[in-house]
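In practice, a research group might receive sequence data for several interacting partners and want a quick structural hypothesis before committing to experiments. The following worked case mirrors that situation: the sequences arrive first, and a predicted assembly follows.
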Amino acid sequence: MNGVHDMGGMHGMGPIQEEKNEPVFHERWEARACGLSLAMGCFGKWTLDALRHQIELIPPADYLRMPYYEHWIAALVELMVKTDLVTRAEIETGKPAQGSPRMSPALTADGVSPMVANGAPASRKVPVPPRFQTGQRVRARNMQPLGHTRLPRYARGKLGTIDRVHGAFVFPDTNAHSLGENPQHVYSVRFTAHELWGQDAPARDSVYVDMWEPYLEPA
Amino acid sequence: MTSDLSHGHEHDHKHEHQAVPSDPALRVKALESLLVEKGLVDRAALDALIDTYEHRIGPRNGARVIARAWVDPAYKQRLLTDTDAAIAELGYGGMQGEHMLVVENTPKVHNLIVCTLCSCYPWSVLGLPPVWYKSAPYRSRSVIDPRGVLREFGLELPEHVEVRVWDSTADVRYLVLPERPAGTERLSEEQLAALVTRDSMVGVAKIAPPGQEQRS
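A structural hypothesis for the assembly, expressed as tokens:
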């Protein structure tokens, strides 16, 4: 979707605000929110792609105003309600519904180390060879999907060069919508700053964008 | 990035969750209590997760990788060509670092990492990202005006240096291999690691020679 989250190339967002000796979490609720989101993800009721898309669905003005971990909490609540882990009424009252069964946590303390150490690789084996080779000229498709995509607007329709073939990975555009992992080859595509931003951009500079094969066509 | 009450109140209004406390701290507390009471969340697991990213996994991991690459040319070669395996040699890897690539800064090339679409970041070697990395100003301008962004971080690059911006739009996470500063020939690997900053591994800073002020 063409949401405000897709902000590459926008102006007017203000100066970058660095903070010296920044803590990992500024307030305890941020730490708890981070932990809750990671722990609830372990039920396997939604994918990371679905979580990202849920964050993209936050109305633009709210998205820009909310602190980062509020995005996580807002998306977590929606996903938990959608997947029947909790009800809207439970969220509003803060109490389990009467007679609701007691569940078991998907993540326990002793599960944290293996979860962090193993991660969740999104690489997959696919039976088809990559369509494009390193050095090949490609064009990013001009597409405007209403659902989740990882093809940023600033690259759509632009000419680039395959810099590297990464291997095949789960395809977010389907996986975010429970339409399957549908793994596709992923490429690092080099776009010159001239191609993306016009002739006033510095001649030597470039942006490398990782792209799934369906985002690309031969040029 | 504040979490003031009025903003939360306004937000709740819009979504008709008036019964929910408006302060994010109260809301998250209420949510945690609910999920614990339903048996969905183990508080000890949250504590362990938080401890992991507050105390165990952070930019010191990446700094050790960089220092090793500086002192061991064979390791550097492996790091650039078989990144995941090379990082695993030092015991790092896993969540949000499953598929890594290291890009090398040289006198002619400067690399900068961003995620314009969300906030993808190599957790396994840098920990959780700082607020500025996740912020709209950084995400919006890094791709269209990387030199301007670097200037805001106090780094002015000569015109002849090629800037490469890496937008982390897929599952690959990027780490910059910064240039080893002059005057560090006699330093041990450990001492070198102490010089390596988080910002240099994202590409928004260079590493100052020893004795000069470092950026975070």
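Before designing any experiment, note the following. Chain A has two domains: 28-118, 137-218. The CA atoms of residues 162 and 189 of chain A lie 5 Å apart.
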